[in-house]
Design brief:
Blueprint lengths: L1 E8 L3 H10 L10 E3 L2 E5 L11 E6 L9 H5 L6 E3 L2 E4 L4 H13 L6 E5 L12 E5 L4 E6 L2 E6 L10 H8 L9 E4 L8 H6 L3 E6 L2 H13 L6 E5 L2 H4 L7 E6 L9 H7 E14 L5 H13 L2 E15 L2 E12 L1
Parallel strand pairs: 6-7, 11-12, 11-14, 12-13, 14-15
Antiparallel strand pairs: 1-3, 1-4, 2-3, 5-6, 7-8, 9-10, 15-17, 16-17
Length: about 325
């Protein structure tokens, strides 16, 4: 039987699905399907779909009932997913083992369960993991139509920032002349979408394993010809790119201010900087804005704050924030 479906390009699918879910419009009894680069999301009321989204009639299969971890446990456990890996943050070993067994025995497409064994540490920002189920820490994560191979034991990656990464990279005009410089690129979740939108993207990271994955992920996503991946300290690499960037990503909260002089040296005559920080909720943007203005004015730039944006709550009274800033040579 045919049902109304929202049809969107695959790369826009996750954002659209979330919007429809928040509006309680997704027909949960039907499967979401992908065909020929399009995602078809069944909806319960075609007339309630927001303007601008295409609605088509399409035959999609009935969703089979799935057993969830909550069904097996009697409570809803807290976990994150990266690819086919579930991540726990449990202090009680018995509870952690119980949740891990339920996740594996459920119908979730998960084969590995890890429990956090340390905080993020060191300049490569990795953490230790306890393996509760499965065989390893390597996986392939998918978000907004892109694939990222990674090893959680050797690189940093946060699925919670998917929406933020999409927000930033959507600002890139489909223009082969735009030059994007990611100062802390990791496995490429900013670099790959930027290149897919036509930009020439440079990704730098001090973690050699992250750069190896960035190379692999550029190939996975068909953007190798528009991606330059460099292993090294960005402060040493920057001299090769002085005055060349149209857009700079600075996603290193807590210490991004230490790299502002480097960012300004890479900026072109006009440049947008996406600057991430962790600040107290009483003044979440003031310290970052002052640091940016001081560094930019010293180099002869005018500063325009385009967006002051709270990404998420980081800790009690602390916020992860982003400032989108436009620099123009005075």
């Amino acid at each position: 039987m045919e049902v109304p479906c929202v049809r969107v390009p695959r790369e826009e699918g996750e954002a659209t699905r979330r919007d429809l879910a928040e509006a309680d419009l997704i027909a949960d009894d039907r499967e979401i399907r992908v065909k020929d680069g399009w995602l078809y999301i069944p909806v319960v009321d075609s007339e309630a779909v927001p303007a601008g989204l295409a609605v088509v009639s399409r035959e999609v299969p009935v969703r089979e009932t799935q057993t969830t971890p909550a069904d097996l446990l009697g409570f809803d456990p807290s976990y994150e997913r990266i690819g086919d890996v579930a991540l726990l943050d449990e202090d009680d070993p018995e509870r952690a083992d119980r949740i891990a067994r339920a996740i594996v025995e459920s119908d979730l497409p998960v084969g590995t369960v890890l429990n956090k064994a340390s905080k993020v540490k060191g300049e490569t920002r990795v953490r230790d993991w306890e393996l509760l189920a499965g065989e390893g820490t390597e996986t392939v994560h998918r978000e907004y139509g892109f694939e990222y191979a990674l090893d959680l034991a050797t690189v940093y990656f946060s699925p919670r920032l998917a929406t933020e990464r999409h927000r930033v990279t959507e600002q890139i005009v489909d223009d082969e002349n735009e030059r994007v410089f990611d100062m802390f690129a990791g496995v490429g979740p900013f670099v790959i979408p930027a290149a897919a939108r036509g930009a020439k993207a440079v990704g730098v990271d001090v973690n050699g394993r992250a750069i190896e994955y960035l190379h692999e992920n550029a190939g996975r996503n068909g953007v190798t010809d528009r991606v330059t991946a460099i292993h090294g300290d960005v402060r040493e690499v920057a001299t090769e790119f002085e005055g060349r960037a149209d857009r700079i990503v600075m996603n290193l909260p807590h210490s991004a201010d230490e790299f502002l002089a480097t960012a300004v040296s890479v900026a072109g005559e006009e440049c947008t900087i996406h600057y991430y920080d962790i600040q107290h909720d009483q003044d979440p943007f003031g310290p970052s804005e002052k640091a940016i203005r001081d560094a930019a004015s010293e180099a002869g730039y005018d500063v325009e704050i385009l967006t002051r944006h709270v990404v998420r709550s980081y800790a009690p009274h602390e916020l992860n924030v982003c400032l989108d800033v436009r620099l123009s040579r005075a």
